[in-house]
Amino acid sequence: MATSEAKQQATAWLKSTTVGFLGCGNMAQAMIRGFVQSDLVPAKNFIVSATSESSKNFKICQDIGARCTTSNAEVAKAAIVFIAVKPHLVRSVLAECEFAADALLISVAAGVKLEVLTEVARTKKMVRTMPSTASRVQQGVTVFAYEKGQLTAVEQAGVELLMDSLGFSRYVPESLIEPVSSVSGSGIAFMYMGIEAMADGGVKAGIPRALAYELAAQTMKGAAAMVQETGQHPGALKDAVCSPGGSTIAGVHALEKSGYRASLMDAVEATFTRVKQLG
Q1: Which of 16, 29, 32, 134 could form a disulfide with 140 if both were Cys (CB 3.0 to 4.6 A apart)?
Q2: Which residues pair with 107 in a beta bridge?
Q3: Average pLDDT, stretch 201-224?
């Protein structure tokens, strides 16, 4: 945990330094929006690379207020550089970049380990992170790892501030990055599917679709808040809703028959298996 003095210095640093993004896909856009909305990094401080000036992502990042280029080498001149390209492109993109000796690199590439990143980028100042797309609305889940002793106190504080600004964040051992990404990084897609399915059920029961989406989304948000704020086991919270012989337990029974919990566990396991293959 960074000291208050280090955080003060890091806050001033982030306000004045250039932050680069190699790649400007959905995750990069979500993170940039989160940083800007949190007032941590001004939009004008960002420089972002895209494959083409005519690409949709190029235009989106320009609209956010970032400077955009098709040159990865230009982005590599920034003081902080996020590696936000697809995992299979990491080696080739980093190979064409020459980073400053004191540059801080932060990777969001799934499955690519710190050992590989530091070797290809030729620097030890490397942070590996796994955010979620809810970073766009500062409700993301982000875990990060780096080799102890390679970052200054101010750099560590800067990383903490950046990740905290996107929502919930935690420093974890690198060995947990893949498992965590399977739950929070990919898991948000599973939650969207749950909202969609609940809303479809509501529509089938006669609820207008727009209202059904609002009800399903708020219900999931409320359930998450109950788990986080009460500290009770999810099973106990579920039991509290299930009256004997009531409608909720009938619905729970239907979910159990369809393998609801096993399906979610299988989805996390499949994601974990796949993300290990990406590096």
Answers
A1: 134
A2: 83, 128
A3: 98
Phi then psi for 253, rounded to 5 degrees? -60, -40
Is the model's pTM score more than 0.90?
Answer: no
Mean pLDDT for 232-250 is 97
Per residue, the 3-state secondary structure of the chain, as one string, reads CCCHHHHHHHHHHHHHCCEEEECCCHHHHHHHHHHHHCCCCCHHHEEEECCCCCCHHHHHHHHHCCEEECCHHHHCCCCEEEECCCHHHHHHHHHCCCCCCCCEEEECCCCCCHHHHHHHHCCCCEEEEECCHHHHHCCEEEEEEECCCCCCHHHHHHHHHHHHCCEEEEECCHHHHHHHHHHHHCHHHHHHHHHHHHHHHHHHCCCCHHHHHHHHHHHHHHHHHHHHHHCCCHHHHHHHHCCCCCHHHHHHHHHHHCCHHHHHHHHHHHHHHHHHHHC
The confidence score (pLDDT) of residue 279 equals: 65
pLDDT exceeds cutoff 90 at 54: no
Residue 239: the pLDDT is 97
**Contact assessment for residue 158 and residue 104, using Cβ atoms and an 8 Å cutoff:** yes
**Across all residues in the chain, what is the average pLDDT?**
93
pLDDT in tens, 149-194: 899 999 999 999 999 999 999 999 999 999 998 999 899 999 999 9
Contacts of 98 (CB under 8 A, 6+ apart): 73, 76
